[in-house]
Amino acid sequence: MSAFDPNAFSAAWNAHDIDAILRMSTDDCEFHGSAGSAPSGNRHIGPSAVRAAYAAIFAAFPDAEWSNSRSTVLGPDRVLTEWCFNGTGADGKRIAVDGLDLLEIRDGKVWIKNSYRKSVS
Fold first, then answer.
1. How many CA atoms lie less than 13 Å away from 47 in the CB half-sphere?
2. Please, what are the averages of pLDDT over each run of 10 residues along the chain (121 residues)?
3. Backbone angles phi, psi at 76, to 5 degrees
4. Strand, helix or coil for residue 72
5. 77: nearest Cα among 107, 116, 52
6. For the chain, which domains are there?
C-alpha cells in the first residue's frame, strides 16, 4: 500500500473537509453507505455522487464527529477503520453508534469506502 494515511483521512472527516477527502480518493471513487433501500446500502459511484453523499451527511449532522478511531492495515490494498460516530440530527436527538469502514486502496488513495455501523433502536 503506497502513501495512504488513514489518520489524515479520519482527520479530514472530522474537519468536514470534503475537498481533502476527495483528494485522498481515486478519480473513480465509490461510497457504499451503511443505510439505504438495498441490503448493501446506497452506493454512490464517482466523485460527484460521492461528494453529494458526504455533503448530505455533514448537512444532516453538522456536529458529526468520528471518535476513538483505530485503523488496521489488512493487506496492501485494504484498511479497516473502526470508529464511534457522534452527532445531533435535525430532530435535536444526539446519537452515538459504533461502526467501521472497509477501505479499498488503489495507488495510495481510497477507491471504495464501504461503511458499516451498529443500529440504534
1. 13
2. 84 97 98 89 96 97 94 93 95 94 97 92 73
3. -65, -20
4. strand
5. 107
6. 6-117 (3.10.450.50)
